[in-house]
Amino acid sequence: MVRPFFFAWHFLTAIPLSRAYHDPTPRELALSMRLYPLIGLMLGGLLATSDILLSGLFSRSVVDALLIVLLVAVTRGLHQDGLADSLDGLAGGRTAAERLEIMRDGRIGAIGATGLVLALGLRYAGLSAMPQMERVPLLLCMPAIGRWAMVLGALSGPYARTGSGLAEPFLAQLSWRDVIWATGLLATALLFLVGPLGALVSVGIAALAARSLAAVSNRFIGGITGDTLGATNEIAEVVFLLASPALFSWR
Fold first, then answer.
1. How far out from the chain centre does Cα 109 lie?
2. What distances in angstroms separate CA 43 from CA 39, 65, 73, one per listed residue?
3. Of the four listed, 53, 96, 189, 202, which is most buried by Cβ atoms within 10 Å?
4. Which residue stretches of 13-163 are H helix?
């Protein structure tokens, strides 16, 4: 699983680890999705460490804003771009082909911009409402939850575009076995970090977000794209953050 780990890391982050691993096969890309929750936990570790260090220098509100900037920076804004493109496409066009063409356009529209601002605002609100004593485990969990939701969402429909695209190689050989592996990895971490009931609720939230967006995507564009998977990550993370104050009351 060494090569799939590097492929997962390089796809989900902007931090280079090695140039020795390249030219992945479709099966290696599918295997890399098993490790998405692990990459999420590593990103969560970066957020938690930064939170501890920055808290000695800035107020809570400034730290929360800087954590959002940090996460966007280390992930190249990939998921925010997916959310904005998905909203523009799903809200525009009268046919699946027109909606897909809008999503391919690199320019952001009014709906996409509005949705992106609202998502960032809700993310900030969720961080602000996070219980101070539980920030470290919740920050560790948040990116893992979002990236697991992407894995589940990727198996929730066919690839919507004809020909190749960013998501197509990942979806070509993805199976339920890969999703089960990713789920086991996520569940193990959540059981330790937020307890059994908190883990169950967290997975349920992410699964609902992934399946709901997949249903909308299947209905309006005929399947899944890289943009809709990015949107799935964003929505799952934001909903998890908004629900986070209740998670530790269920431990």
1. 22
2. 6, 16, 11
3. 202
4. 26-33, 36-55, 60-74, 78-91, 96-104, 110-129, 135-154
Q: At 36, list the tokens.
A: 């998405």
- Could you give the percent of the chain with pLDDT greater than 70? 96
Alpha-carbon dihedral angle through residues 25, 31, 36, 42, given to the nearest 10 degrees: -90
**29 falls within a domain:** no
21 is a domain residue: no
Alpha-carbon gap, residue 219 to 67, rounded angstroms: 35
d(CA 112, CA 159): 22
Q: What is the pLDDT of residues 143-199, one digit of tens each?
A: 999 999 999 999 877 888 776 666 677 777 888 999 999 999 999 999 999 888 889
Q: Binning pLDDT at 50, 70 and 90, where does residue 221 land?
A: very high
Domain around 117 = 39-250
Could you tell me if residue 25 is inside a domain?
Answer: no
Give me the mean pLDDT over the 118-143 stretch: 94
- Residue 175 and residue 30 in contact, taking contact as beta carbons nearer than 8 Å: yes
15 part of a folded domain: no
Quote the CA–CA distance of 209 and 87 in Å, as a whole number: 15
Assess contact for 119 and 83: CB atoms under 8 A.
Answer: yes
Angle value at C-alpha 175, between 158 and 98, nearest 5 degrees: 15
- Per the prediction, the chain carries an average pLDDT of 90
Only one residue has tokens 């690199």, namely 106
For the chain, the domain total comes to 1
